[in-house]
Amino acid sequence: MVNYQNPQLDRTFAALVDPTRRAILARLEQDTEVSISELARPFAIKLPAVMKHLDVLGDAGLITRTKTGRTVAVRLAPQPMEEAMNWLRRYERFWSASLDRLVTYVEAKEAAK
């Protein structure tokens, strides 16, 4: 019997479901290391809520934290994301043909204008 269970992959996709967590990851992709207070600044939620999001991202292995004095810095950890992309690539053939047909359709509609 094939084992379809991959807890790490499940945690990665569960973490990526939330738009706030995706925004945090996007910010970390831009800057190598960001303090938690700096990371929380642009969000319209309180610091404890940001901390909960960081806990989810940390549990999924998508971020790491380091403490220097009283400042906690957060960094992106890309390995779980790479594993998720590898999993998605296995199914790419199922949607590639559909996307190609969509592009052809849209281009035909544009040419007909």
N-to-C SSE string, H for helix and E for strand? HHEHHEEHH
In the predicted model, the low-confidence regions spanning at least 5 consecutive residues are none
Distance between the termini: 54 Å
* Share in β-strands: 5-15%
Mean pLDDT: 90
- Shape, per Cα inertia axes: elongated
Helix content: 55-70%
Q: Outline the biggest β-sheet.
A: 3 strands, antiparallel
Plain-language structure description:
This protein is an alpha+beta fold. 64% of the residues lie in helices and 12% in strands. Strands 1-3-2 form a three-stranded antiparallel sheet. Helix 1 runs antiparallel to helix 4 and helix 1 packs across helix 5. The longest helix is centred in the last third of the chain and has 21 residues.
Summarize the structure.
With 113 residues, the protein is α+β, with helices and mostly antiparallel strands. It has helices at 7-16, 19-30, 36-40, 47-59, 79-89, 92-112, and strands at 34-35, 63-68, 71-76.
List keywords for this structure.
6 helices; elongated; 113 residues; three-stranded antiparallel beta sheet; alpha+beta; 3 strands
Write the layout of secondary structure elements.
Blueprint: H1 7-16, H2 19-30, E1 34-35, H3 36-40, H4 47-59, E2 63-68, E3 71-76, H5 79-89, H6 92-112
Antiparallel strand pairs: 1-3, 2-3
Helix pairs in contact: 1-4, 1-5
